[in-house]
From TrEMBL:
<feature type="transmembrane region" description="Helical">
    <location>
        <begin position="5"/>
        <end position="20"/>
    </location>
</feature>
<keyword id="KW-0472">Membrane</keyword>
<keyword id="KW-1133">Transmembrane helix</keyword>
<protein>
    <submittedName>
        <fullName>AI-2E family transporter</fullName>
    </submittedName>
</protein>
<comment type="similarity">
    <text>Belongs to the autoinducer-2 exporter (AI-2E) (TC 2.A.86) family.</text>
</comment>
<dbReference type="InterPro" id="IPR002549">
    <property type="entry name" value="AI-2E-like"/>
</dbReference>
<keyword id="KW-0812">Transmembrane</keyword>
<feature type="transmembrane region" description="Helical">
    <location>
        <begin position="55"/>
        <end position="76"/>
    </location>
</feature>
<dbReference type="Pfam" id="PF01594">
    <property type="entry name" value="AI-2E_transport"/>
</dbReference>
<feature type="transmembrane region" description="Helical">
    <location>
        <begin position="304"/>
        <end position="326"/>
    </location>
</feature>
<feature type="transmembrane region" description="Helical">
    <location>
        <begin position="26"/>
        <end position="43"/>
    </location>
</feature>
<feature type="transmembrane region" description="Helical">
    <location>
        <begin position="202"/>
        <end position="235"/>
    </location>
</feature>
<feature type="transmembrane region" description="Helical">
    <location>
        <begin position="138"/>
        <end position="162"/>
    </location>
</feature>
Amino acid sequence: MKIGQWIGLIAIVLSLYILWQLREVLLLIFAAVVLATTLNRLARSFQNLGMKRQLAVALSVTIFFAGIISFFWLIVPPFTQQFQELTYRVPQGFERINSWIDEQRTHIPPQLIPFIPDLNRLIAEAQPLFNRILGNSFAFVSSSLIIVLNILLVLVLTGMFLANPDAYRKVFVRLFPSFYRRRVEGILNQCGTSLERWVTGAFIAVFVVGLMSLVGLSILGVKAALALGVLAGFMNLIPNLGPTMSVVPAMAIALLDSPWKPLGVLILYFFIQQAESNFLTPIVMAHQVSLLPAVTLISQLFFVTFFGFLGLFLALPLTVVAKIWVEEVLVKDVLDQWQYHHQAENELVMIGESSDHGEVEEVELISPEEE
């Protein structure tokens, strides 16, 4: 390769390395873009009702913060109370089970006694693990502080993007060559439309799953059913893994009442997940975002591996945007054009027959296969 080509290759490699080192910051910026897109759509809805832009944005932001405050107000107090009760109910349950096992020792053959677990011994062996977890409390507080700072950064960036979205859009477009900027504008329009559709479908799914969970848990008589229903709906934003994560606190709280309720909660969440996967998602999300289930799962594994929990939470919108850029830039603008140029150079062959005066009497265009 020539020197210029080597310099271009080195510049590309350095750019990719810098982007990789800044991946967490870029992910936070993308989270702010998704949130700003959501609030911007809500603001446009208010504008369509005749409201001015500034007032529509202020009302959208107010509704957003009211929703966040309501979420934590519904979730945190009931969970704090229930899990405090859980801290002394669970040891009592272990003592009852251990007493029952001791009573059964007299009714079983002596050969099987060594295979019966001793819960007191298991708790004693697990004590170093609990001490280690408590010893890492400072690290947990430090990580929590970092999470709070990241949330504040996302909120500040969201406000900036929402205040003047066109200015930031123009800055991004100018990063591309002049001949390609109009094309980038079209791709950004597609990304914005797809993100808005995903947000619409996601909120419909959140509402339906939350309502089904609330009704089912109320029928079972589980405490804090409203908080658990809200949590189940919110966790549904994480496909595949979210419903599994939301069933754990529900089963733990159900254990406070009776030992059979956790099994009922598990069956309830299983049927809700099946209904969401087989009916709700195909009907709602198929009209909003067309993604294959395997692609969704692979993207979750990829983003959670490299970006952690935030990557898992943003896996679906990241996949939606990445899908559009790959289809439009890599497939249509590179691979398809490459094929057309290749056919233009190799497909047609011109055959002519000259007359006595040296003129071409007949010209025929045929493909190499016909030749």
